[in-house]
């Protein structure tokens, strides 16, 4: 596995600014903590692609990319499944009556355990699939089998940070947060690996002594016990997927 460190490359080329070695050096040294799941997993014609998130947890977290006109056959799981739209648009075909639910960027759908569910898309679709180890406790603000937008679950409050635990159990927690301008979280450590989904506005995430600007549509990953902070740049909403085991 490649790790971020000093890079030394030997090459022979007349153009010292645009040769392949220089391009490779820039690629290896790029900052990958702030990223776009949709851009890193673009739909490809005729293909359905699943990629592990790399998050270490008892909760299975997988990125899916479906090319235009493709589908995934309906199946059931013994555990509830959470789907988060990351880019494009797709349709989940749910239940024995094949109810069709459209999901786009920023939308979330939770499918109860034992429920038949498939996916199809006409234009291409990227989404995150989350399968926790145990049954989930859900806020009354959302219902299983219904599509909802994360950013619309809670309002801003003047000079405050608003939190809503959307889904949780002993192994995972999914929280939505709304930061008023000028607010933020002081440096602290989390008990597990986590993903931050920027939903609205901009912020700066401090991580292990370095600042990372982030904006709506981007994702930030940090490891267990990583020292981090959040400072809103104007009003800012985000979702936090925190693994506890």
Automatic annotation (TrEMBL):
InterPro entries: Cupin_2, RmlC-like_jellyroll, RmlC_Cupin_sf. Residues 176-241 form the Cupin type-2 domain. It comes from the Bacteria. SUPFAM superfamilies: RmlC-like cupins. It holds the Pfam family Cupin_2. This is Cupin domain-containing protein.
């Amino acid at each position: 596995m490649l790790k971020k460190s000093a890079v030394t490359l030997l090459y022979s080329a007349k153009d010292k600014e645009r040769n392949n070695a220089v391009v490779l050096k820039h690629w290896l040294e790029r900052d990958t903590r702030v990223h776009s799941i949709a851009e890193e997993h673009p739909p490809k014609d005729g293909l359905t692609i699943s990629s592990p998130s790399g998050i270490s947890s008892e909760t299975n977290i997988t990125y899916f990319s479906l090319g235009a006109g493709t589908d995934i056959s309906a199946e059931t799981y013994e555990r509830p499944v959470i789907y988060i739209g990351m880019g494009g648009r797709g349709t989940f075909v749910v239940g024995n009556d094949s109810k069709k639910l459209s999901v786009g960027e920023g939308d979330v759908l939770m499918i109860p355990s034992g429920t038949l569910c498939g996916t199809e898309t006409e234009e291409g679709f990227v989404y995150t699939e989350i399968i926790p180890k145990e049954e989930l406790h859900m806020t009354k603000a959302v219902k299983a089998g219904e599509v909802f937008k994360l950013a619309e679950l809670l309002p801003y409050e003047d000079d405050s940070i608003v939190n809503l635990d959307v889904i949780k159990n002993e192994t995972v927690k999914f929280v939505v947060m709304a930061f008023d301008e000028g607010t933020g979280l002081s440096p602290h450590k989390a008990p597990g690996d986590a993903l931050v989904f920027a939903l609205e506005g901009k912020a700066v995430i401090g991580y292990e002594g370095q600042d990372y600007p982030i904006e709506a549509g981007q994702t930030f990953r940090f490891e267990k016990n990583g020292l981090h902070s959040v400072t809103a740049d104007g009003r800012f909403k985000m979702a936090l997927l925190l693994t506890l085991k």
